[in-house]
Predict the structure.
Amino acid sequence: MNPLRILPFLAISCIFTSLFLSLGPNPVLASSNALSLKPRPILEDQAWNQESREGVDKKIEIFDEIREEEKRESEEEERERVRLYCESWRFAVETNNLQSWKVVPIECGGFVKKYMSERGYRSDLEMVAEVAGAFARNVELGQDGMDAWIFDIDETLLSNLVYYEENGFGLELFNGNKFDEWVDLAEAPAISPFLKLYEEVLEMGFKVFLLTGRSESQRSTTIHNLQNSGFQNWDRLIMRGAADQGKSAVFYKSEKRMEMEKEGFRILGNSGDQWSDLLGSSMAIRSFKLPNPMYYIP
Amino acid sequence: MNPLRILPFLAISCIFTSLFLSLGPNPVLASSNALSLKPRPILEDQAWNQESREGVDKKIEIFDEIREEEKRESEEEERERVRLYCESWRFAVETNNLQSWKVVPIECGGFVKKYMSERGYRSDLEMVAEVAGAFARNVELGQDGMDAWIFDIDETLLSNLVYYEENGFGLELFNGNKFDEWVDLAEAPAISPFLKLYEEVLEMGFKVFLLTGRSESQRSTTIHNLQNSGFQNWDRLIMRGAADQGKSAVFYKSEKRMEMEKEGFRILGNSGDQWSDLLGSSMAIRSFKLPNPMYYIP
């Protein structure tokens, strides 16, 4: 026989076989007794049990997948709930609706860390500095050199983020001694958008007052830190003296502003990360609140 | 010939054919002259050109993919930049750093719409109402019925979101006539967390003053709207009279608060969506700023 004669037969068979195989794994073909025509009840029972077992396994698998999916969804919902809560908490903090809070709520630890460490905090600071700069450029200054701008120091000109990174970003209760140790290092870097604003308002002819809750005992460290971070030519650095200890920040700072006004200064701008830097008496024409979701000073 | 004899031969051929086919589309087999053993230089050159062309096409495809990826990345970066900007813009608005803005920045249209329409606005309102309620419960009231709570109306007790949904969520310049038409419909729904607070402070024994920028000509419509939305038993509804037209909101509202104080009322709480509801003279012991990124009233 000419072997080429088999060729068309072979080709057609192959097409069918390939098509058959292409339908995917077939349980009948896959089972060991598929090609046997002789009845083998025991093995068939096993096969049936096997199939039934596979069916149960498949159902368990699907059930697990559904449970997994539900878990993912509820975790996603929980994350969204926490995010919304923390956004609203931050709104309440920054608008001064909340007041008198001691620590960041435990569920917002991650939220505050993310905000402070990633681009949110930086972006907010830049916007506040920009808005404050626009006001400074547009306000009319007198010719007598009595127009003043007040800057708070901590979280306004100098950043203590390095300290707060190591102390839970506000999750931990404030520890005065530990914080003073950090201040004494005089290593706090400048908040650059506010170093820029500081230099701009000086350039425009404002008198610059630094009004801080830091105590007189920290004067030389503070001057050292400020100068090392690029701040120069302020008019006065006002710190808590012996008589100011124990006063609330809002009261102490209001008193100091009142004294400035009595000397004839016009307080056009004020900038601080706490409402207690800005509210009270002798308020500035425009006050600029910097963000700070890490701590609250009354 | 017994046709079954072909079977082993057929099976082996089929296995090889299937294996061969399973290697995927083969360019040699696919080309029309693959099975011809006769050299056909012109066609082979075409095949070579074809392959080379395919190489170029592949490179173009990879290049397009890289460009597509870069585009996606830069779009993603752009979205992130806009989101950061709008978050910071909102911070500047809600802390009153910005002041005097007329419309939502065009790039923040989507941001404000999303905030107002999804869960953010609702969540913020609930938090403010909760914080205000906690203060109300903890402050000590006199026995003389002279403790007062002030509520603003628009975006504080009543929501004009339906109107702003149809007018760009603050992207469009404020149109007084169009807004008055909406007010005259008296269809503004209650802001439910503040309806709850309203009822709570009444229950506690506060006198409730409604202090609104709406004009006296809208009194009956406003009463109708308030009552239909569930507000009852307020002490006074104070609206702009003829003499108050043209005054800034902060001045008009300060004057009205001063009058309350002169009558002997103690203003413990105040709540409004504008800083001009809250700042000025005769300020409340505690002021509660509700969110509003849609408009600014000086």
The domain at 125-289 of chain A is CATH 3.40.50.1000 (Rossmann fold). Chain A is about 50% helix and 10% strand. The two ends of chain A are 107 Å apart (CA to CA).
